[in-house]
Predict the structure.
Amino acid sequence: MVKGFLKDDILLMSSDGLTNLVKQEDLLRITKKNFEQAPKELVKLANDNGGYDNITVVVIKNI
């Protein structure tokens, strides 16, 4: 079943520099907590975990 991008849905797009260093649970927790600060917090966490690759994060919320 396919659904559209609904109100309050959050879309996170990132490079493998993030997903290789941050657990999915942390991605979800941080993004849901404050989607506006999530990119900065996620990049910091990836760097704290080794940050050996370039890290790109984009978060979009449908309001």
The chain has one domain: 10-61. The two ends are 23 Å apart (CA to CA).
